[in-house]
């Protein structure tokens, strides 16, 4: 696990290297993956796991995988059934709270 504001977890599951909850921003998620790769064997993320729809759990996903690979099905993504609804509700609430 790498801490950078929050936690991003890298799990080696046989031939799959899953990133769970890839932080808030692309930059912090990429930094965390680079940190792991510099200290362990280089790992390419081959799956994404989102535990829930808060921005600090999915906002950095583009820092660890290429969107084209996700769209093409080369990097499977696992998320709760209501992930999109929760993430949109959370973003609306953040906007209302901030202004």
Q: Total number of helical segments?
A: 3
Q: Please state the structural category.
A: alpha/beta
Distance between the termini: 34 Å
**Major sheet: size, sense and barrel closure?**
5 strands, mixed
The number of distinct β-strands equals 5
Low-confidence residue ranges: 1-5
CATH H-level superfamily? Ribonuclease Z/Hydroxyacylglutathione hydrolase-like
How confident is the prediction overall: mean pLDDT?
79
Q: Can you give the helix content as a percent range?
A: 25-40%
| Strand and helix order | EEEHEHEH
Strand order of the largest sheet: 1-2-3-4-5
Shape: globular
Number of domains: 1
What percentage of amino acids are in beta strands?
A: 15-25%
Question: The CATH topology is what?
Answer: Metallo-beta-lactamase, Chain A
The CATH class turns out to be: Alpha Beta
């Amino acid at each position: 696990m790498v801490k950078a504001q929050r936690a991003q977890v890298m799990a080696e599951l046989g031939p799959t290297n899953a990133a769970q909850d890839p932080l808030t921003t692309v930059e912090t998620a990429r930094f965390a993956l680079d940190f792991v790769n510099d200290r362990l064997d280089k790992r390419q993320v081959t799956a994404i796991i989102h535990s829930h729809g808060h921005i600090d759990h999915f906002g950095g996903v583009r820092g660890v995988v290429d969107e084209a690979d996700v769209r093409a099905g080369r990097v499977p993504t696992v998320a709760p059934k209501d992930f999109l609804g929760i993430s949109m509700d959370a973003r609306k609430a953040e906007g209302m709270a901030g202004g």
